[in-house]
């Protein structure tokens, strides 16, 4: 069949091949099998779940062809940004590239924090680096928690006072 109105024909074609059970929806499992990093590893579960939740308008845990089409545009935008920061075109983001990316995105984060992210999200190696899926995940979580922080930091002073439960509520509603 033809692509529905407002859906890119290429996205529709890919949707049909990714929808392996022919349900008319893409599950997290199907999405994970469809997306790969530059090193041919599949996207991790956490990133796939974040993206499914972002484009799942019915809260069913899956996305329709419209959500999938929007998701592909979203991924392409992140991929373009990723390639912009991957200055040596290695297919992954190194520590210095991550620091530069954060700075250019307007985040004033310490080298220690970037190192912490590398330790948490990079594959274990002598020269750790971040693949596209983890870059998307880190940036989405950073944006979400920054938004939550800014809601509390009404004076834009860079500090807030929170109760422990307020902090947990911020994390749970934004990250899980």
Task: Give a brief description.
By secondary structure, the chain is an all-alpha fold.
Please render the helix and strand layout as text:
Elements (H helix, E strand, L loop, with lengths): L8 H10 L7 E2 H7 L10 H11 L6 E2 L1 H21 L9 H10 L6 H11 L10 H21 L11 H12 L1
Antiparallel strand pairs: 1-2
Fold and architecture overview:
This protein has helices spanning 9-18, 28-34, 45-55, 65-85, 95-104, 111-121, 132-152, 164-175, and strands at 26-27, 62-63. It is mainly alpha-helical and 176 residues long. The chain has two domains: 1-85, Recoverin, domain 1 (Orthogonal Bundle), CATH 1.10.238.10; 89-175, Recoverin, domain 1 (Orthogonal Bundle), CATH 1.10.238.10. The N and C termini lie far apart (37 Å). It holds the Pfam family EF-hand_7.
Characteristic terms for this protein:
single chain; 176 residues; mainly alpha; Recoverin, domain 1; two-stranded antiparallel ribbon; 2 strands; globular
Secondary structure: helix percent? 55-70%
- Number of β-strand runs: 2
Rounded to the nearest angstrom, the radius of gyration is 18 Å
Give the overall silhouette.
globular
Distance between the termini: 37 Å
| Average pLDDT reading | 90
> Given this structure, which CATH class of the largest domain is correct?
Mainly Alpha
For this structure, what is the CATH homologous superfamily of the largest domain?
EF-hand
Helix count equals 8
Overall structural class, as computed from helix and strand content, comes to mainly alpha
Strand order of the largest sheet: 1-2
Sheet with most strands = 2 strands, antiparallel
How many domains? The number is 2
Bin the strand percentage.
under 5%
Low-pLDDT windows of residues: none
Reported by name, the CATH topology of the largest domain is Recoverin, domain 1
Order of helices and strands: HEHHEHHHHH
From the 3D coordinates, which CATH architecture of the largest domain would you assign? Orthogonal Bundle
InterPro entries: EF-hand-dom_pair, EF_Hand_1_Ca_BS, EF_hand_dom, Peflin/Sorcin_CaBP
Organism: Burhinus bistriatus
Domain EF-hand: 6-41, 73-108
GO molecular function: calcium ion binding; calcium-dependent protein binding
């Amino acid at each position: 069949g033809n692509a529905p109105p407002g859906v890119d024909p290429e996205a529709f074609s890919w949707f049909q091949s990714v929808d392996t059970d022919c349900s008319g929806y893409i599950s997290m499992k199907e999405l994970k099998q469809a997306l790969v990093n530059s090193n041919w590893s599949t996207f991790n579960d956490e990133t796939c779940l974040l993206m499914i939740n972002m484009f799942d308008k019915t809260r069913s845990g899956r996305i329709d062809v419209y959500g999938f089409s929007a998701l592909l545009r979203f991924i392409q935008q992140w991929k373009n940004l990723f390639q912009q920061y991957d200055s040596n075109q290695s297919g992954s983001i190194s520590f210095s590239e991550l620091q530069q990316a954060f700075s250019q995105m307007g985040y004033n984060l310490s080298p220690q924090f970037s190192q912490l992210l590398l330790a948490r999200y990079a594959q274990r190696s002598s020269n750790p680096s971040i693949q596209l899926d983890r870059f998307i995940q880190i940036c989405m979580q950073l944006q979400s928690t920054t938004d939550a922080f800014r809601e509390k930091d009404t004076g834009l002073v860079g500090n807030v006072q929170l109760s422990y439960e307020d902090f947990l509520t911020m994390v749970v509603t934004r990250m899980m």
